[in-house]
Amino acid sequence: MASELETEVQAIDQNLLECSAEETAGKWLQATDLTREVYQHLAYYVPKIYCRGPNPSPQKEDMLAQHLLLGPMEWYLCGEDPAFGFPKLEQANKPSHLCGRVFKVGEPTYSCRDCAVDPTCVLCMECFLGSIHRDHRYRMTTSGGGGFCDCGDTEAWKEGPYCQKHELNTSEIEEEEDPLVHLSEDVIARTYNIFAIMFRYAVEILTWEKESELPADLEMVEKSDTYYCMLFNDEVHTYEQVIYTLQKAVNCSQKEAIGFATTVDRDGRRSVRYGDFQYCEQAKSVIVRNTSRQTKPLKVQVMHSSIVAHQNFGLKLLSWLGSIIGYSDGLRRILCQVGLQEGPDGENSSLVDRLMLSDSKLWKGARSVYHQLFMSSLLMDLKYKKLFAVRFAKNYERLQSDYVTDDHDREFSIADLSVQIFTVPSLARMLITEENLMTIIIKTFMDHLRHRDAQGRFQFERYTALQAFKFRRVQSLILDLKYVLISKPTEWSDELRQKFLEGFDAFLELLKCMQGMDPIVRQVGQHIEMEPEWEAAFTLQMKLTHVISMMQDWCALDEKVLIEAYKKCLAVLMQCHGGFTDGEQPITLSICGHSVETIRYCVSQEKVSIHLPVSRLLAGLHVLLSKSEVAYKFPELLPLSELSPPMLIEHPLRCLVLCAQVHAGMWRRNGFSLVNQIYYYHNVKCRREMFDKDIVMLQTGASMMDPNHFLMIMLSRFELYQIFSTPDYGKRFSSETTHKDVIQQNNTLIEEMLYLIIMLLGERFSPGIAQVNAADEIKREIIHQLSIKPMAHSELVKSLPEDENKETGMESVIEAVAHFRKPGLTGRGMYELKPECAKEFNLYFYHYSRAEQSKAEEAQRKLKRQNREDTALPPPVLPPFCPLFASLVNILQSDVMLCIMGTILQWAVGHNGYAWSESMLQRVLHLIGMALQEEKQHLENAVEEHDVTFTFTQKISKPGETPNNSASILAMLETLQNAPYLEVHKDMIRWILKTFNAIKKIRESSSTSPVAEAEGTIMEESSRDKDKAERKRKAEIARLRREKIMAQMSEMQRHFIDENKELFQQTLELDASTSAVLDNSPMVSDMALTALGPAQTQVPEQRQFVTCILCQEEQEVKVESKAMVLAAFVQRSTVLSKNRSKFIQDPEKYDPLFTHPDLSCGTHTGSCGHIMHAHCWQRYFDSVQAKEQRRQQRLRLHTSYDVENGEFLCPLCECLSNTVIPLLLPPRNIFNSRLNFSEQPNLTQWIRIISQQVQALKLLRKEEGTSNTASSENSENMDELQLPEGFRPDFHPKNPYSESIKEMLTTFGTATYKVGLKVHPNEDDPRVPIMCWGSCAYTIQSIERILSDEDKPLFGPLPCRLDDCLRSLTRFAAAHWTVVSLSVVQGHFCKLFASLVPNNSHEDLPCILDIDMFHLLVGLVLAFPALQCQDFSGISLATGDLHIFHLVTMAHIVQILLTSCTEENGMDQENSTTEEELAVLALYKTLHQYTGSALKGMPSGWHLWRRVRAGIMPFLKCSALFFHYLNGVPSPPDIQVSGTSHFEHLCSYLSLPNNLISLFQENNEIMNLLIESWCHNNEVKRYLQGERYAISYPRESNKLIDLPEDYSSLINQASNFSCPKSGGDKSRAPTLCLVCGTLLCSQSYCCQTELEGDDVGACTAHTYSCGSGAGIFLRVRECQVLFLAGKTKGCFYSPPYLDDYGETDQGLRRGNPLHLCKERFKKIQKLWHQHSITEQIGHAQEANQTLVGIDWQHL
Ligand SMILES: [Zn+2]
Ligand SMILES: [Zn+2]
Ligand SMILES: [Zn+2]
Ligand SMILES: [Zn+2]
Ligand SMILES: [Zn+2]
Ligand SMILES: [Zn+2]
Ligand SMILES: [Zn+2]
Predict the structure, then answer these.
(1) Neighbours of ion ligand 4 (CB under 5 A)
(2) Residue 1654 neighbours by CB under 8 Å, 6+ apart
(3) Which of 334, 1090, 1505, 1754 is surrounded by the most beta carbons within 10 Å?
(4) pLDDT average, residue stretch 1004-1009
(5) Distance, CA 1694 to ligand 6 centroid (Å)?
(6) Which contacts qualify for 1399-1408: CB closer than 8 Å, 24 or more apart?
(7) What spacing in Å lies between the alpha carbon of 165 and ligand 2's midpoint?
(8) Burial annotation 417-433 (CB, 10 A radius, 16+ → b, else e)
(9) Average pLDDT of the chain to the nearest whole number
């Protein structure tokens, strides 16, 4: 069936291919009715090409379409072969200077913070690098797709609009030239024809809505019954739901379903079934039924295949048009013309209109194709961009409404093009004036928010889900409004004024609907039942914040507009609150002989709202007026007379009182929604247009009122009027009858009110309020932030409000107020306040939260103490108010204010009788301070003394008036300065008195006119000075004592931290000199130390005592005592691997006996060095296990460790561990001391003896093998066997270790085996000892690498955990044979031995090029005792060690010589002179001879010796470490310090001659034989003939990949990366392996694979091949380092990229340029080298439990 279909298709293909494009085009040229002709052609061919089966075959379709459909069009258009025609067009073209590159998802984009007109103006990477902006302050982001490069758009850039590439063309085109002049008439006409037909066709078919019927002119004669069941994308159903449904509905596999779902998500639709109508209909109904339960069902259509075919071609056609117009700007213009030409149906009938208007009905794929076409045509043509903008604006309302009801994200909607159009200043201005765009946007927005309350205000309460959804979508309109306003006009035309004000009207209507929304009433008695909705209103406010600010900015630019806007705003405010006195009783207030009328209104009893945007806008405009010239020159033009100050202040005041009452705890029963609202009201995101403006409004109102009246109204609103208006009210009030809570409440309210007064007078840093500029304002913010503590750049940015361009203005002033402190290896760069700025600190800064305020107070007092100053924090000197606000200062000297101050001071004086608080007093003192500063300023600035009307000092010197006759404020202050209960405030009171006197002096000196003097004060002065001096002395002593105590405390603290650091954070830092290992070694004098062999330096036995961390008991490490163990972590490792493509395929069959020199997979053992009793550990581990099982049942969560795999955390340091190593004494000593040997064989003899023993063992082994079957022959063979002298194979030595130690030997051995091979534990497997030796060798090698890479001495001070680990590991590996069957170990020895000394029984051994010699050495040395223990001939273990070592060393030398490349032969042909050089040359000649001259070249001896020395160093170093730990011989002091290579010292320590080659000469008899056998190996030959590869020496250390200096080039690289599995799709989370540089498509369905039965993401899968389970990645989009280990473990790590402020940007949220920090990258590399990745993850997960919940395996 299938094959039949295929041949059929092929047959058609053949037919189709015979049709010629040229001929078709020719026919068209002749046609009278071209449209009909073309349509017939399409009607016939399109269904024959597209949609011929269930699965799309895009390549074939494309090929045929090009041949049959597009080809003819191209011929027609060019009038000749397009292969010539198009290049001609291209040549004639004068390309535009716009770049217009459309961004891919994830592509880096750049915006210049200095020159971009707004943040939406971006450059592509290429343009950016060629522009002037690369040296400016720029921001980098990754594109979400869509949008294009603005290079060349002069309106987008204040400076440097062209990059180098696009600048080339600008000189030629100055004026707007018609691009059509470059085309011939014919081409224009033909292009016009064909574009018109094809564009129309595409629009028609894409917007076609019938499912089985084609447009009449495309209908086919014969119609097959072939349909598609088409599934459409929606944003409601999840991936999982769709996949599940599809599996059910169309019976496909999960993989296919994933494929369908992925395509649906990407393209917006995908056919899921092909067949007859019935068949498709059936699938449709299943899908609909299955997805309609909770939500609306998935959209499915059964469509006739020919419709789908035409639609597919329609899309193809649009992309084709897009590429054709790339040849010439003329063609592009024609397309624009065609697209915008009005059709026969008039308005909205152009093709462009039709597409736009059906946007929401199209599927995603179709939308993005035509959006792209619009961008590359309409938006690239300056003339048509304008026309298109008009069309867009005219359809705006409809498009937005479509978008609001559509469920696709905005990026897939045509509405999203607004950003491209509205941000062009000239277009925006044109659309405002000609299309009234501002008004349209606002009205459209309002239309979508119809839900209002009785007063016509927005009401968000009880929103349905649909309304909420709509509300979310409609917010994007605010963004459009922002775009329109973002560039401010430089010139105003009358039309612009008129339309702007019209828009302003509409905007006021909007704000009016917000004024007073979400009103609240204080809940008394019961707690509210349901938290009222508040978020929607705040969302709206937040989104509008920038728009409101921008409206003000616009108004500020034109005085006429400003005044008009002010009037309009005022009128609307009157409408809102015109009748605010209605129904409310008027009352009269009076204090100190002043009285005022107001209304009775209590915030705590009536409705109050936080939303007052109209009042706040008016406040903003008022400040602008105050700044303008009109305010001084023609105040009569201002509508100030219409203002009613009490009306202005009423609502903002209520709002501030509400905050105070909430703070006083009066609104507790109103729940969290109110707390949240108050929080946001002050928050940096909202405060600029909320809290700040309320303060301004109060300042405005107060500046126009009698200060006494103002204060009385304020007292009344704070509900404190009674307290201050009734004499002695305070006393009564405090009596025991009053409830304590009420006292507390009132105290807080008084504090809050005083705070508010301080703010009204002190907050004058906005231009227009006082004589400051914008920079002063931002400086002040920064000073106050840094007064709390030093801050990082990003922290500071977060605390400052951003403008619509996301700028805080911080960079321009930060240098003036702060020092920058660079970051170290961790942490970030910090800004510190300059000391000279401290004097500008205001404790009552209005943007402080309470916590910040107290922190700042503490920090500033501490600073003052450190500087040995008094701790008073007086108010700073303030800039003078602008004239409109000047009268505000009179509040300070108003009678009511003085009365309030006096009352509170009086309470403080008689402190026991009243309810008062220190904070209250502190605020009064601050206010007095402010008044004094003010008066001083006035005096200093006044031209003539009598101008000064500010006479605060006089007023506070006067005693209170009748009837109280209280003392003067000054007198009270003097009393208070000695009050013992006010110690903290003494410095402040003293400062006030000092300043008072200073002012008096100024007054006296400048005037003879008597100031009302308070005589007492002057008389007291001298005595007070004396008193002051005495107190100062005492204070000094007290301070010194305090400081001493503090110093002691901090010393103790530091100690504590240090100790804990050592205990808990013993990092693997090699330079940590925490323990000097060598200190414990016995004193050995300067004599040469030898680590092995018969001449080994004898070290006196040392007794070792250790303490168990669990039971704290001390115990000696002895052979027969209970085992002591170290917590250890065994892991597989590829850190040293030279071949990452290699990994163990079948662990069950893998033979690890020989390690390949590529070290592709090793087993690493690490330890934190903490010691326990074996039984204590066992008990601990059992309890962990039990606890974990219980926990897992309860919570089903992963922990940072996997108990089932034997993992646990070290009980002391929580370091991840998975086994324990026993502590042992040097195991050789136990055996070596058995006999005293005298005569020892030389190497040749020894090899012969061992060979004999090996031979004997082999025969015996055979014996045993056959003994079971035929016992008769047994004895016969036995006779044949000549046992070498003294060899007793039947002897089995007694194991000297205690049971407990033996058990631990087995435990650790099994763990190494299990982890290293990833198999089930089996202690009897013969591979167990091999794995132990291997881990010992590998761990030593990795340590040697780290030391070499860091130029550290081999035996320098190692951290003790490392030292302990290596010692235990080596001794363990040496003792392990005692718990294994002797014959197994002997077998291993024989095989290892045979690799160097061949015998006929082992044939499949690797050649010497394929053996890592250090692994071989360790294996041979550690297996040797198993043979030697049966040897009673008198050969000692030490002799064996020495000979083995020499033999392996020589093999290594041969290996080095064979593999060293001989190319660098040449210029420095020095004569070989030294002994070594001559010897090595001779050896090389021997090799040359044995390899049959295959060894090429004859380098100089000097070269060869150099190479041998360099190549063998790592081996010698590893050997030195190995024998050092094995035999316990201290290291020679020379190797303990870094410096020269120590070659000679190493040789002597290792019992080697300095001339290594002499080893060969001494043993030449046997060595020649061996060398010959090595060289004759086939593999060696193949290598020498260049047929295979071999590792050469020294092996270079592995490094992490090189990273680029500039992070954006990584982003760029990743944006070009597409998912390897889903054909060219961009990867969403491209992730870079830092080990091998592979880019992976992480965290995505497409690249999931199965690993050991689990679905895992690309990263996890990669760790298994690249890092044997552990991996280090960089998530490029997030700029985040990812550590992974195993399937379930991972953590994020800070990336090695920093911005100029020394901060990382995880998540790339800030977009500052990032540069590679080499030190941090080295640190990551070090973690990798040290095998600490898993440990890092463990610590991170322990510290942050949320990391445990992340689904690491799917990354
Ligand atoms: Zn560009
Ligand atoms: Zn450019
Ligand atoms: Zn710039
Ligand atoms: Zn213990
Ligand atoms: Zn530990
Ligand atoms: Zn993928
Ligand atoms: Zn890798």
Answers:
(1) 1108, 1110-1111, 1173, 1176
(2) 1687, 1753
(3) 334
(4) 64
(5) 25
(6) 1399/1251, 1399/1254, 1399/1255, 1401/1258, 1405/1154, 1406/1154, 1406/1156, 1406/1579, 1407/1574, 1407/1577, 1407/1578, 1407/1579, 1407/1580, 1408/1451, 1408/1454, 1408/1455, 1408/1458, 1408/1574, 1408/1577, 1408/1580
(7) 6
(8) bbbbbbbbbebbbbbbb
(9) 85
CA of 221 to the centre of ligand 1 (A): 49
pLDDT reported for residue 1141:
83
**Each residue of 115-162: pLDDT tens digit?**
998 888 999 988 998 999 988 988 888 888 778 999 988 889 989 899
Q: How far apart are CA 1254 and CA 1247, in angstroms?
A: 10
Rounded to the nearest angstrom, the distance between the alpha carbon of 1130 and the centre of ligand 5 is 14
pLDDT tens by residue, 1127-1136: 999 999 999 9
Short-list 142, 135, 140, 125, CA closest to 159:
135
Ligand in nearest proximity to the CA of 1636:
7
Token pair in block for residue 546:
């920038």
Instruction: Supply the pLDDT for residue 1464.
Output: 53
* C-alpha to C-alpha distance for 954 and 1011, rounded to whole angstroms: 7
Rounded distance from Cα 532 to ligand 5 centre (Å): 53
CA-based end-to-end distance of the chain: 43
Residue with tokens 């006197």: 997
Q: How many angstroms does the Cα of residue 97 sit away from the middle of ligand 1?
A: 10
Residue type (1 letter), 866: Q
Is the predicted pLDDT of residue 1555 greater than 70, yes or no?
Answer: yes
Q: What percent of the chain has pLDDT over 90?
A: 43
High-pLDDT (> 70) share of the chain, % = 89
Maximum alpha-carbon separation in the chain = 142
Judge whether 1478 and 1455 are in contact, CB under 8 Å.
no
Sign of CA dihedral 309, 315, 319, 324: positive
Cis peptide before 1630 (omega within 30 of 0): no
Tell me what the mean pLDDT of segment 1139-1163 comes to: 87
pLDDT at residue 1060 greater than cutoff 60:
no
Q: How far apart are the C-alpha atoms of 152 and 98, rounded to whole Å?
A: 4
- Contact by Cβ (8 Å): 122, 151: no
pTM: 0.80
| Contact between residue 315 and residue 369 where contact means Cβ atoms under 8 Å apart | yes
User: Cα-Cα-Cα-Cα dihedral of 19, 25, 30, 32, to 10°?
Assistant: 100
Highest mean pLDDT, choosing among 337-346, 526-535, 1366-1375:
1366-1375
- pLDDT in the model for residue 1086: 52
Q: Decide: 901 and 642 in contact? Cβ < 8 Å.
A: no
Q: Quick one: pLDDT at residue 1671?
A: 92
For residue 268, how far is its CA from the centre of ligand 6 (angstroms)? 18
Distance of CA 1443 to the CA centre of its chain: 57
**Token reading at 507:** 């905007």
Residue whose C-alpha is closest to residue 880's, from 928, 836, 927, 941: 941
Ligand nearest 1123 Cα, by number?
4
Burial of 1104 (0-12, 13-18, 19+ CB in 10 A): middle
pLDDT at 598 over 90: no
Measured in angstroms, how far is the CA atom of residue 1502 from the centroid of ligand 1? 57
Q: How far does residue 1169's CA lie from ligand 5's centre (Å)?
A: 6
pLDDT mean over 1553-1570: 89
Tokens 């006196």 belong to: 1100
User: 231 in helix, strand or coil?
Assistant: strand
pLDDT digits (tens, 9 = 90+) for 1167-1218: 988 999 999 999 999 988 888 777 766 665 556 677 788 889 888 888 889 9
416 CA distance to ligand 3 middle (Å): 26
Torsion angles phi and psi, residue 566, rounded to 5: -60, -45
Q: Kindly report, residue by residue over 683-733, the tens digit of the pLDDT.
A: 999 999 999 999 999 999 999 999 999 999 999 999 999 888 876 665 655
